[in-house]
Amino acid sequence: MAFSADPVKLRSPGLWPILLASASLALGGCIIVDGDGHHPYDDGYVEPPPVSEDPMLVALDTDATVSAEPGEGVGLFVEYAAEGKWRLSTTCDTNYSNIGCTFDVFAGVDTSSELTDLSTEDLEGRDDAAIIEEGVAGWHAETASDIDAITLTTTPGAILRVEMYLDQVSQPRFVYWFGNGVLHEGAPTNPVDFEPTAP
């Protein structure tokens, strides 16, 4: 179901490529990738594909958690706890590929809500996360046989727009969340808008 911007106006999707470019600089600049076949590009930075101009709105079950084993598969996992607590975490398939995954994630609230805090879990090395402008967070994670995560605090019940790149390529098929009691494997658009089932 397509999201109608009538009740709540989200930041313009046209703004996201600009944020991506500025956040790339703020979060450490270019990403060097290996030339071993696991990554889709072998020669450094590649301009990401255009983002969807019509992000889909999906339901996200409040207080549902997604279990993931470190190193066993590639994924960005989106969870929401009551009172405005979001958790985004990443895993990679390093136990099988012997290669790490590079995630670039952007998360922003609708314009009627606020993003008030960002905290990190188990970030190390070149991992970085920050609120890069009012209502928008940027996160760079280099994940191997571990789990990297950030927690965002927003206005309770806020709609959260999430945009994800894996090894600099738009890969919504690796986004996971629980909605309507079902584990969803792959977002319909990149970015995608998450609406919690309860504030």
Report on this model:
The structure is a single chain. The chain is mostly beta strands and 199 residues long. It has one domain: Immunoglobulin-like, CATH 2.60.40. Helices cover 8% and strands 39% of the residues. It contains two helices and 13 strands. The protein has helices at residues 15-26, 94-97; strands spanning 57-60, 75-81, 85-91, 101-109, 115-121, 128-133, 136-143, 148-154, 160-166, 169-170, 175-179, 182-185, 192-196. The strands form two sheets. Strands 1, 4, 6, 7, 9, 10 and 13 form a seven-stranded mixed beta sheet that branches. Strand 2 (75-81) and strand 3 (85-91) form a beta hairpin.
Task: List strands and helices in order, with pairings.
Blueprint: H1 15-26, E1 57-60, E2 75-81, E3 85-91, H2 94-97, E4 101-109, E5 115-121, E6 128-133, E7 136-143, E8 148-154, E9 160-166, E10 169-170, E11 175-179, E12 182-185, E13 192-196
Parallel strand pairs: 1-13, 2-11
Antiparallel strand pairs: 2-3, 3-8, 4-7, 4-9, 5-8, 6-7, 9-10, 9-13, 11-12
